[in-house]
Amino acid sequence: MKYQEYTVSPHNFEECTKCTVCTVYCPVLEVNPLYPGPKQAGPDGERLRLKDPAFFDAALKYCLNCKRCEVACPSGVKVADLIQSARLKYDHSPIKLRDRILASTDFMGKMVRPIAPVANLVTGMGVTKTALDAILAIDRHRSFPKYSGRSFEFWLNRQRKEQAAFPQQVAYFHGCYVNYNYPQLGKDLVKVLNALGVGVQLLDKEKCCGIALITNKMTKEATAHATHNVAVLEKAVEKGLKIVTTSSTCTLTLRDEYPELLGVDNSAVRDSVLLASRFIYEKLEQGAALPFRKDFHKKIAYHTPCHMEKLGWGVFSEKLLRMIPGVEFTLLDSACCGIAGTYGFKKENYKTSQAIGEPLFENIRTVNPDVVACDCETCKWQIEMSTGYPVQNPISILADALE
Amino acid sequence: MRFDTVIIGGGLTGLVAGIRLQKAGQNTAIVSSGQNALHFFSGSFESFGEPTRELADLFSEAGIHLHYKEGVRLMPMGTFRPSALSLEDISLFPKPQFGKKVLLVNIVGYHDFFSSFIAQGLEEAGMDVRIRFLNLTEMGIKAPGEMRSVQLARTLDRNWEKVVQEVRLLLKDDDTVILPQVFGLQDASIPGRIRQSLPAQVVFAGTLPPSVPGIRTLHLLKHRYGVLGGTYLMGDEVVQAHLYEGVVHSVVTKNLGQHYLEAGTFILATGSFFSKGLSSTPEKVYEPIFGADVSFLPDRNGWYNPSFAEKQPYIGFGVCTDGDLRVLKDGAPLSNLYAAGSILGATHPELGTGAGMCLRSALKAADSILSGPVPSHSDNSPCHSDNSPCHSEQSEESVESQA
After folding, report:
1. Which has the closest alpha carbon to A16: A35, A37, A44, A36?
2. Domain check: are B246 and B159 in the same one?
3. How close does chain B come to A92, measured CA to CA in Å?
């Protein structure tokens, strides 16, 4: 009997049994009384919106898109997708200049990179932060990530030949953060993969995954990015390459947000997009070995980013870190750090953002690690700003632990 | 990824079995597709007799304190039900009357606690009841945005002393105070501290879901499982099993895809219809992962009782096992697959026996696994249900038999 295949509602919303479990796990509902919560904003609201779009509630903008409601739902309802789709479909309010700036991560990267030292100095100044706060409503507590003078693509391009010499090859979707802000993470990945006999290639001109465009409801731009990226990923997959990533959010966007929220078909590439920690874990499981240092000692607390929780792949980063000799490992209780990409940069969300993260920050202070490990760049900014503890991607920790 | 045992289902059954196996030195994983029935937990494991030392220790090591007394407990609708083994929150009485003068406290704006039903029930049992409402705003407590049990509990965990003060002012010559079960979400000691701080007997009465004591119990068990080294895969779902000659080799999950979970033994603890451990078509009831034999009434008209509160035959449907809880498929036991919890179909919700059955069968399955793989084809007790024959599923699509 296959008739159920034909009766699946968008984002499974008719599967909702109104059990209220999602409301227990929404980090926003806990701290912001203006947000109606995932059940009301998601399946309950959808029922009304289908009758009349006038039922769309502007308060849906308070949703973090953390997906914790989806992870918790016993009935498989894609609650967060329902909420984000409704925002893309029904929220016709003009997009603020600030949101455009925050969302255009690769455009900003391209513009700022040539003048990185000046830009870093200027954005770091108190007077600039005050001005951004007053004029653009970007909260003054936030620091913009520093820009790197040389892009990661530039660095990897220079050693194309050396990389091509390795017996196995992967393509790396590095994302904006590695390319413009923190090429070191990309270099760390190359170091670890090379140690496993794997060479790293660039994709044929990737664009930003577009998650910030989606959450700032710039649908047209996001769809253009998705279509472009799926095409370059397809090219790589046709060559028999796996695509590795180092950001959990880019990964979730490439795999799930494209088809679910933008309607972009990624079925030819979805299974080939793997977080580096999963790729490396699988190599080791198949018998490969890494040359670990003997004098490595680190107390590491691992934070599972929300989108990693949704991917269900935190287990790979966790097991990989536990494998490193000399590591004292603690798994932090699963909790949202509150920043959710561009969300926490907005002045109106600053207080909510910090209140959401507080239990996690408290947990980190109690564990008192040498370093917090996590696979998400914006979690890194938030945790470093709010706790003072350094945060590293598991891949960078792995690279440090190698001879 | 390989484990000693993979447990499919992360509710009470899966966690108790997982903790038991981890304590015995096994390396296990739990796959949990969404949250579970502990969100609807009354706080009482009714059908369970006096707990063994092992069970009491298992819970107290997790920070959960149980008490045992054969008696009755107060139900959310003002009636009484026989109960014994319970969380400490739950008051157990020798008879359905526990005081002469009762102060029943509710909260303004909270719609999930039916004080007038309770009052009527208690008055019929011969008690004198006064209902009084607390106004959180007037008490200087910022009420949560959404007035549900969990949101209230988060607020009241920080403000329970103010509630105690206010209740003291309301108390006259009452010998008993009834409060809604919205205390002690994060801190299990709060209900006990409230009891000590009031000069009357304090009874906590159930609310509509989500259940505050149930969620606290879940978090404590889950935390304990993690401390013991268990791997909890949240929000993932087993979609396929690989069998060969009556042995389960591995399972495939939605999130891990081609990365199979392999194990020596497996426990099927996926629950009943609500959590999709069992599914149905108009003609049959089936178990979707392994195509296990299921006992159900062939005549669909016999599945339901039109009177909602009466015994519902479909709840008694479940997978068939042998005496060691090994799952039967095509009439023969799979040698390394055990079933436990609500999927056994042996519970009677009208008697409230669900949680007790989960405990019993979880421990039984774990003990069967620990006592070693001794296939006993001799003692196949055909079914749990007295009246429903077992049905074999000859070809179930999700099962891939490797020829």
Report:
1. A44
2. no
3. 26
